[in-house]
TrEMBL record:
Presence of the UniProt keyword Zinc in the record: yes
PROSITE patterns tied to this protein: COX5B_2
Keywords: Acetylation, Membrane, Metal-binding, Mitochondrion, Mitochondrion inner membrane, Transit peptide, Zinc
Chief localisation class: mitochondrion
Example of a GO biological process term: mitochondrial electron transport, cytochrome c to oxygen
SUPFAM superfamilies: Rubredoxin-like (SSF57802)
Protein name according to UniProt: Cytochrome c oxidase subunit 5B, mitochondrial
């Protein structure tokens, strides 16, 4: 007799579980909108970086720089937050020695060894 009662209660519990719709956790799915994207959950400096990348800017010079000819008309661009910066020039491709020199803000300056031109451009950080 006790086994019959136990079987009946197990059956009713299983039927109740089948008919009850499953609830999704609200915290994980942000009220039915799905999983939030990186832009939606980014905060602080990361959010500013993502917004500037979306506008097409390169906030921390993380992309490969554009190739410049190095002439006076098309000098190599050197970004800096100061009014001068030290630059190292590999004058030849297989050269093992680096020629170091200062580039100041204003007109383009030449490398003392090979003659390539470099121009300093003021670069503001996004934070």
């Amino acid at each position: 007799m006790a086994s019959r009662i136990l079987l009946r209660t197990c059956k009713t519990i299983q039927l109740a579980r089948i008919n009850v719709p499953m609830r999704l956790p609200q915290r994980a799915l942000a009220a039915g909108k799905g999983i939030p994207t990186d832009e939606e959950q980014a905060a602080g400096l990361e959010r500013r970086i993502l917004q500037s990348l979306k506008k097409g800017k390169d906030p921390y010079s993380i992309f490969k720089p554009k190739h410049y000819a190095g002439t006076r008309a098309d000098p190599h661009i050197v970004p800096s937050t100061q009014n001068k910066r030290i630059v190292g020039c590999l004058c030849e491709e297989d050269n093992t020695q680096i020629v170091w020199f200062w580039v100041h803000e204003g007109r383009p300056q030449r490398c003392p060894s090979c003659g390539s031109h470099y121009q300093l451009i003021h670069h503001d950080l996004p934070h």
